[in-house]
Amino acid sequence: MRIRDYDWPMSAPDIPFNKEPPGPAGEAARLSPLVRRVLAPNKGPFTFTGTCSYLVGEGKVAVIDPGPDDGGHIEALLAATKGERVAAILVTHTHRDHSPGARLLQARTGAPIIGCATHHPNPDPPSGRLDASHDLDHAPDQMLQDGDKFHGDGFTLEAIATPGHASNHLAFSLPEENGLFSGDHVMAWSTSIVAPPDGKMTDYMASLDKLASRSESIYWPGHGHALTEPQRFVRLLAMHRRQREAAILERLAQGDRSIPEIVRVIYKGVDERLHRAAGLSVLAHLEDLVERGMVVSDAGAATEVAGFSLR
């Protein structure tokens, strides 16, 4: 099984997930005066109904997350912007369902690719883990740092560094509409997977805190519907992760010492084909717990093959 970019739809009753399809692929849907959405046809158990590509502005537009390497989706974006000019292509992060389409769209429009940094894989990842989900060919014309702004024609996009799901993950705020393009850091349909070596739970939780302190009233995510009560939703996501951490600590207290042992209990009822992805999520929590001095790893650091115990 190849680990994909997203967590499965999880049964967290305290989180009001929206599992309704946002619309058909290929059609431009008007979401607000400045925002349109075109859904890519990459539906799947880890991508929900497909990647949401966003068109921002009128006349001279910015495209956020042109999606996978799919020529048909690029044609749909070009059809949606017929008579307009694509002035910039922004990318939230380099997972392969978000960034490869940027190069295809640039070849057709000449627009610069800006946003998240190039991904640099770990040359010696623990246990032989690879950054298989990343687009290693992504080479932006301009990388944005936290707080950097792109000034469009009648709109502004501000980069908000939100590492965790991916180390180079950015969200983009749209102050003219008090909105935020949240990428895969916050999604209405499911929790996001945080998978080492690139995903880091400490960063993910800090990024949730960062967004919870902001004032945007609507989030447009990388998959699924918009979020209209985003701060409450973000707080529930953080609570869910703390509950997951508590469950892991309880399993260690009960004598479990390996990730498969923990997964079998706390993900009971989840399709076993997804246990590999579940194990990476547990590993991310264990890495965080080891760094915080709450758990001990017999390998000195948290790895997939280490044994764990409470300190």
**Range of strand content:** 15-25%
Largest sheet: spatial strand order: 1-2-3-4-5-6-7
Low-confidence stretches: 1-13
Number of domains: 2
Shape: elongated
- CATH class group of the largest domain: Alpha Beta
Strand runs, count: 14
How does the helix and strand content classify structurally? alpha/beta
CATH homology superfamily name of the largest domain:
Ribonuclease Z/Hydroxyacylglutathione hydrolase-like
As a whole number of angstroms, the C-alpha radius of gyration is 19 Å
Which range best describes the helical content: under 10%, 10-25%, 25-40%, 40-55%, 55-70% or over 70%?
25-40%
CATH fold descriptor of the largest domain: Metallo-beta-lactamase, Chain A
Biggest pleated-sheet summary: 7 strands, mixed
Q: Just name the CATH architecture of the largest domain.
A: 4-Layer Sandwich
Distance between the termini: 33 Å
Count of helical stretches: 6
* H/E element sequence: EEEEHEHEEEEEEHEHHHEE
- Overall pLDDT: 91
